[in-house]
Amino acid sequence: MREEIIVAGFGGQGILFAGKLLTWAGLIEGKKVTCIPSYGAEMRGGTANCHVIISTQEISSPVVDNPTLLIVLNEQSLEKFLPRLREGGALVYNSSLIEKEITRKDVEIFSVPANELAEELGHTLLANMIILGALAYYKKVVELESLIKCLPNLLVGKEKFIEPNTRALRRGYEFARDKR
Amino acid sequence: MEKIDMKPLYRIPQTLRYVPTHYCPGCGHGILHRVVAEVIDELGIRGKTIGIAPVGCAVIAYKYLDIDMMEAPHGRPPAVATGIKRVRPEKIVFTYQGDGDLLAIGMGELIHTALRGENITIIFINNSLYGMTGGQMAPTTLLGQITATTPYGRRIKEEGYPLDIMKTLSQFPGVAYLARGAITHPREVRKIKRYVKKAFQCQMEGKGFSLVEVLSPCPINLRKEPLEAMKWVEENLAKNFPPGEYKEL
Amino acid sequence: MSSSRILISGNEAVGEGAIKAGCRFYAGYPITPQNELTAYMAKRLPEVGGVFIQAESELAAINMVLGASAAGARAMTTSSSPGISLMQEAISYMAGMELPAVIVNIMRGGPGLGNIAGAQGDYFQATKGGGHGDYRLIVLAPSCVQEMADFTQKAFYLAFKYKNPVMVLADGYLGQMMEPAEIKEFNFEDDSPSWRLDGAEGREPRLFRSLYLPVEDLEGLNIRLQKKYTEMRREETWREYYTEDAEALLVAYGTCARVCREVVRLGREEGRKWGLFQPITLWPYPERRLKELGRKVSKVLVVEMSSGQMVEDVRRILGEEKVGFYGRMGGALPVKEEIWKKLI
């Protein structure tokens, strides 16, 4: 098993947080993992992305050129990364902010109205967790419970955010399950 | 026989080594070394003082000062002193630097060490030129002054203006003590000693950055007899860089 | 899998490794791609009673480390290629004064300002001198986040053992990437009370000097240093992967070694007798072992993220004919398929 993932969106959408959580979940499931954020000058101009690899075998380069799985939270990132998605790969995208029709037929496509679902829970900032929750149902890269279990690792000193993030992960998962 | 109570009038400071000098006849370094050594003795801090020598004529100051010392790359003594002082805040740390080392290549370190209010002392010897390399222009070279690299005299249009560092440093809140003396007369040398002592005391009390500038003759590079050179310091250098205390917190 | 492993970036792993090896002084200056490391030290050092200074330049940073080291502290600075160039003068001073310090270079693409992607263009600078004068640094090359911590700790140990600056040479990818790692306490004895500057109370004054005007004095210092560098050759360290029966040998360090390891694994799955020789110490270069392995294989391919720097050492050791080269520049990563093509 080997998933090469790009998580992309606006700065401020919690892209790196989502990437790290995914990586942590892979780690506690006993997989080999790497995660590398876009950094420096690349961070300017408002977009952020991070590359995550989860594999049963040793990982050489942490950089993902052609992902097997693409998670995008805004339209700009979709335009940038969709052409790079591998044939037979999967796209999970935030339909609240992406209205464009997706024309690729050689990939699996899952749309999640992440901002709307997050707003129902009280804050759009939870959209990243909605998407990850949905991903856990659609692609089983990592288990929902692993994601939830790893939240405290990333929220040291910010424990009050564990509960809303947990709810958002579950909401995303349930949305995907009920939609099917 | 009548008993005479004899008091020594001259004694070599404990901190000053009894060795032949390598400085040129009429140079001010020897006098300033002695002043620093006397102050260290009088404050009783010989065992806890660490000195940093510059690149320049005073590079081997350790030959004369009987304390822990090190050399530093050209211009970097304030950074080296920062490293030492932060690791050993209970020690007294000073640098001894010339005008080229401190005000040309080392300007960045000086300004930022002063801005941080680093609790160290800088003894700054200003002879208006680069002594060791043969009398080139320094940031303190006066307008019209002839040096190896200003053979037509320092010109505003070509080389710009000399730097009065007292004016620059006195505006920084982290700077606790600033004074300038001149090696022109025993009376003036006694003033320098008072300034140096105050600077070290300022550090001992943890008040922050202190600097004492000392105008000093370099007869060889000024192409003057020792007395003439001293007179030149009094009549020219000290006119442009007036001695006195500039700041005391 | 150990439960005490955490997900941490290479940059932060260097910082935590250093602190757990007793590093209590850090001075640095912002430069990508190592900024997380400086920020990490700013946060962590005060927690352990250490000193953090954001210096006004790399010049100031390395000279603060020079002073802190002379005062006996376990001191470190970190930077990336252009900043490391600025530090070379003081590194030469430290080598001459025999002062221990750890310098970490998270290499980026060059020359000049270059870019902020990971690269390996500073191999010559790190291993062949960099600064002026006859001196050597021990250079350690990690290839994963765990080693970023481990080799930083080893660097402190070696720096104090030999009273010499030690460099950890990694690249931007290793600095930025997150991987699981376990960072343990690393204790070692050092004899700094016998040489540090802390005031001459009750003893003779001490001196760290750099100027030796009489020729015989400076030659004497150099002879002593060279003897020490010969002793430092004992520290040659490397790693081997499927080398026992290898017919073709890849030679790579750092991020390139990761890529080559995968190529070897994929090759072995197809029954190809490929192996990897990964130097850990880039200086001293693990020459003897490479020579032995070189005799047994028919083909050697050096892979670097540079125009070919380490390959000069490999060719010096194994000769020109046998040694091929594949390199990417400007921050590009080597491609598995390209390595594969060059091996078959």
Key attributes of the depicted protein:
heterotrimer; A: 180 residues; alpha/beta; Pyruvate-ferredoxin Oxidoreductase, domain 3; six-stranded mixed β-sheet; 6 helices; 6 strands; globular; B: 249 residues; Rossmann fold; seven-stranded mixed β-sheet; two-stranded antiparallel ribbon; 9 helices; 9 strands
Can you describe this structure in just a few lines?
With 180 residues, chain A is an alpha/beta fold.
Shape category of chain A: globular
Q: Measure the end-to-end span of chain A.
A: 24 Å
In the predicted model, the low-confidence regions of chain A spanning at least 5 consecutive residues are none
Question: Which CATH first-tier class of chain B would you pick?
Answer: Alpha Beta
Please give the CATH class of chain A.
Answer: Alpha Beta
Tell me the major beta sheet of chain A: 6 strands, mixed
How are the elements arranged and paired?
The complex is a heterotrimer of chains A (180), B (249) and C (344).
Chain A: E1 2-10, H1 15-28, E2 32-37, E3 47-55, E4 69-72, H2 75-81, E5 90-94, E6 108-112, H3 114-120, H4 127-138, H5 144-154, H6 162-179
Parallel strand pairs in A: 1-4, 4-5, 5-6
Antiparallel strand pairs in A: 1-3, 2-3
Helix pairs in contact in A: 1-5, 3-4, 4-6, 5-6
Chain B: H1 29-43, E1 49-53, E2 68-71, H2 77-87, E3 92-98, H3 99-105, H4 107-115, E4 121-126, E5 129-130, E6 136-137, H5 156-159, H6 165-170, E7 175-182, H7 186-204, E8 209-215, H8 219-222, H9 226-240, E9 244-248
Helix pairs in contact in B: 1-7, 3-4
Chain C: E1 6-9, H1 10-20, E2 25-28, H2 35-47, E3 51-54, H3 58-70, E4 75-79, H4 81-97, E5 101-107, H5 123-127, E6 138-140, H6 145-162, E7 165-171, H7 172-176, E8 178-181, E9 207-208, H8 215-232, E10 238-241, E11 248-251, H9 254-269, E12 274-279, E13 281-283, H10 287-296, E14 299-304, H11 310-318, E15 323-327, H12 336-343
Describe what this molecule looks like in 3D.
The complex is a heterotrimer of chains A (180), B (249) and C (344). Chain A is α/β, with parallel strands linked by helices. Chain A has a single domain, classed as 3-Layer(aba) Sandwich (Pyruvate-ferredoxin Oxidoreductase, domain 3). In chain A, strands 2-3-1-4-5-6 form a six-stranded mixed β-sheet, with helices on both faces. In chain A, 51% of the residues are buried. In chain B, the strands form two sheets. Chain B has a seven-stranded mixed β-sheet, with helices on both faces. In chain B, strands 5-6 form a two-stranded antiparallel ribbon. Chain B is built from nine helices and nine strands. Chain B is an alpha/beta fold and 249 residues long. In chain C, the strands form three sheets. A seven-stranded mixed β-sheet of chain C has the order 3-2-4-5-7-6-13, with helices on both faces. A five-stranded mixed β-sheet of chain C has the order 10-12-11-14-15, with helices on both faces. Chain C has a two-stranded antiparallel ribbon with strand order 1-8. The longest helix of chain C has 18 residues. The chains are: A alpha/beta (180), B alpha/beta (249), C alpha/beta (344). At the B-C interface, strand 1, strand 2, helix 2 and helix 4 of B face helix 3, helix 4 and strand 9 of C.
